[in-house]
Amino acid sequence: MKVIYLLLVSILVLNFWKVIAELRRRDKVWTPQLLGNSLFEAGFTPEQFSLRLLTHAWFPGTPRAFGKLPEPLFDVVCQIFAVMTKRRQLLAVARKRSEL
Q1: Structural contact between residues 39 and 31, judged by C-beta atoms closer than 8 angstroms
Q2: What one-character DSSP code corresponds to residue 41?
Q3: pLDDT tens-place string over residues 59-73
Q4: Helix (H, G, I), strand (E, B) or coil at 25
């Protein structure tokens, strides 16, 4: 008997303050509800996946600062920049175990 593990990790960029404008220009805008429903329709149960909102975005000087700043300070700068620019990300982690 073979055991197969599936791990899906996805990070999607969200801009909640633009959702209404985006709905007028696109067919789909990713929201936590839409991604959760999509994972459920793909066969994952709610116990097999987690969704989390992240407030973290790279700032314009990231290529120069990355590796030079201590990691905790770099993360704080990224979080401040994300709050200032209203940028959010949606982290989805789904795990599934199947036996063949």
Answers
A1: no
A2: H
A3: 888 888 888 999 999
A4: helix
